[in-house]
Amino acid sequence: EFRRRFPDFQVDSTSLTISEGGMRGDFDILIGIGPYPGEGWEYEDLMPFTLKAVYSAQSETPIVSGDIVLGPILNASTNSMPWENALRSLGYTMAPTARQVRFDSVLTACHAAARGKGIALAPTWFADKLVAQGEVLPLGDGVIRSDLSYWIAVRKSRKLQSTYGRFRRWLNSAIERTG
Length: 179
Prior knowledge:
Elements: H1 2-5, E1 29-33, E2 41-55, E3 64-65, E4 68-69, E5 73-75, H2 83-89, E6 93-94, E7 100-102, H3 106-114, E8 119-123, H4 124-132, E9 137-138, E10 144-155, H5 162-178
Parallel strand pairs: 4-6, 5-7, 5-8
Antiparallel strand pairs: 1-10, 2-8, 2-9, 2-10, 3-4
């Protein structure tokens, strides 16, 4: 649907980190999580960034025992949501001996979790998809709230163009449809 409605938009997926000087590059519109892009941009929050903890029942060793997470913790997060706080919000505690393994992305951490290598945090929409596909189980029933939100930013010089307005309305409508 996106390509049909916005054939003049070039879409790329990236994991750029916005540095202290703000976003650099030839981007007109950004969708992100975390720090806002800085001067020259106008932004608005789209929706809260929530997470779920996921793991596989097919693990060779227990990952959870009662309300204690034994690990390994498959960590692809930044320090914006420490694991201890995340687990506590779900009614669990982390075992003091739980080993942590650092991954470069949520995708690789979730891939490892699906193979029984530990427990990972994933954005709610992604965790729900993996659960629906039978790849992982959720830890508990709740979601983990973070201080972050998904946002959309547009260069101030492009904000008044009608294509951006149509895109923003379409994006907000798509978010509402998916809940």
